[in-house]
UniProtKB/TrEMBL annotation:
SUPFAM superfamilies: YbaB-like (SSF82607). The keyword DNA-binding applies. The keyword DNA-binding applies. It comes from Micromonospora pisi. This is DNA-binding protein YbaB. Signal peptide: none annotated. GO terms for molecular function: DNA binding. Keywords: DNA-binding.
Length: 112
């Protein structure tokens, strides 16, 4: 805060610029990261990149399963990958979200 009770906008602008750069870097890292998930039986593996399914691998022995069971295993592998992808993104963006909330709080706090 400045002596007049107003936020120091120069400092806030610097914080926002740093947060923007950090977010851009995080988005680039997330886009390049491969995230892996698998079915409970380990016969189906999924890979996601940028939060989208990029690859699906089915062990040949899984082909002996009936179609309903195989479909359930594929779905489980993709869902596992989605959860892991979301967790990765939350770990990377969590600190930035907290910093952004702090900056917003400084802007929104009433002058004293």
């Amino acid at each position: 805060m400045t002596s007049g009770g107003l936020p120091d906008f120069r400092q806030l602008t610097e914080h926002l610029s740093q947060l923007t750069a950090d977010m851009q870097r995080t988005q680039e890292e997330f886009a390049a990261a491969d995230v892996y998930g698998g079915s409970p039986d380990g016969l189906v593996r999924a890979t996601m990149r940028s939060g989208k399914l990029a690859a699906l691998t089915i062990d040949p022995t899984a082909m002996g399963q009936d179609s309903t069971r195989l479909a359930a295993q594929v779905l489980a592998a993709v869902q596992d990958c989605e959860v892991r992808s979301a967790e990765l993104l939350m770990r990377r963006t969590g600190p930035m979200n907290q910093a952004m909330e702090k900056v917003i709080g400084e802007i929104a706090s009433p002058p004293r």
